[in-house]
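Narrative of activities, Objective 1.

The group set out to show that a structural description can be obtained from nothing but a protein's sequence at a throughput compatible with the screening campaign. Below is one input-output pair from the validation batch, recorded exactly as produced.
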Amino acid sequence: MLYTSTPGFPGDIKLAQKIKDANPKIKIAFVGPHVTVLPEQCLIDAPAIDFVVRKEFDYAVKEFADGHPLEGILGASYRKNGSVAHNADRAQLQDLDSLPHVTDVYHRDLDVRRYNVPFLLNPYVSLYTTRGCPAQCTFCLWPQTTSGHAWRKRSTDDVAREMAKAKEYWPYVKEFFFDDDTFNIQKARTIELCAKLKPLGLTWSCTSRVTTDYETLKAMKEAGCRLMIVGYESGDQQILKNIKKGATIERARQFTKDAHKLGLVIHGDFILGLPGETRETIQNTIAFAKELDVETIQVSVAHAYPGTELYDFAVKNDFMVKGNQMVDAGGHQLAHIEYPGLPADDILQSVHRFYDEYYFRPKAVFRILRKAAFDSNDRKRLYKEAKTFLKVRAMRNKMFKDKDKAKQSASAPPPREPVQV
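Output recorded for this entry:
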C-alpha cells in the first residue's frame, strides 16, 4: 500500500513499477487524496497499480489483506473486464477508539530516532487524536478529499492510555506531536484531554487555529504543550475572507500575544498566491509575520490540488500556469497559479524574499544562535538545516537569474545587419 499525493504521484508510480518488476505477483494499492479524486485516471496511467481505495482506507486495506475479494470491498476502484469498476463509498469511520494504537506499530517496526522535523524536539513521535475539520478553507486538501469536514474524535481516555504506553515505549523521546487537522478546535474536549495528559508529565505539540482562547491555551501549557503549528496563511483580511478562513487579523494578533504570554512556541504557516494576492498583499503578509515574530515559519506557494475549491476556482478563471508542476525534480515547491499582474515566478521569488526578510533580522538571528549555543543536538540539526536552506536558496536565485537573462535575450532587438557601401 502506497499513500500518494498529486505532486508525488509520478514518482510513486515509478516506484510501484519497480516493485512490480521485482515481484510480478505482488498486489499494489494506492491510497490518498489524489487517487480519491481521480481513481479512474490513476488506474489508467499506472498499470502497476492493482487497485485504489478512495477516502478513508483503514478497513478496506485490512479486508483485502484478509482475503476478501475486491468486488466486496467498499471504497475500492479497480480494473474489471477492460474498464474501471468503482464500488460504493464506505461510510466515514465514527468510532475512532476501535482502531488499534499506532504507537504499537511504531514500537514494533520503527526506530523513531531516525526521523526529524526541524521545529520539533528530536526524537519525536507523531500520532492523531481526531479526524476531519469543520473549517471551510478553500485550499485545504484533506477535509475536502479524504477525512471530510465532520469532526470525529477519539475519547480522551483512549488518547491518555496510548500516551501512557508511549511514554513507556520510548523514555528517550523528547516530544509527542498531535498531527490532527485541528487538535484544539473544541474547547471542552481539549481541556478534558489536557487534564488527563498533565499527570503523565509529557512534552507535546499540536496544530491550532488562531480562534483558540486564552483559557484553552493555558490548560494546554499546564498539560505539557510546548509548540503549536498555526496556519496564519495571510496578513490581508480580504484574502482570509476569499479563502473562507473563518479568522481575522486581529484575532491572530491576540492569539499570538496570549500564546507568547504563556510561553508557548509557535511555528507559523503562511501561503503566498491565494486568491486576491497582489504584490502589495504579499508585502503586507511579510510585515504581519515580522510583527507577530513567531519562533519559526513555513512559507508555501498556494497549490491548487484536484478536489479542492481552490482548484475549481483556478481552473474556471484560467489562473493555472500551463505545464507548471507543483514541485521540481528535487521535491522543492514551484508556483503553478498566477494572477493578472502577478506571474507565478514572482510569487515563488516572494517566498524566498519572505524567508530572507524574516530570518535575517537581528532578532531572529539572535534567537537561533542562542538556541544553538545551549543545546549541542540542536546545534547539529540547525547547522544541517541551514546548509540545506542556503543550498536551495542559491539554486533558486540562480534559476531566477537565468530566467531573467532569457527574458532579456528574448526581448532584445535583433542585431542590425551591416550596411554595404
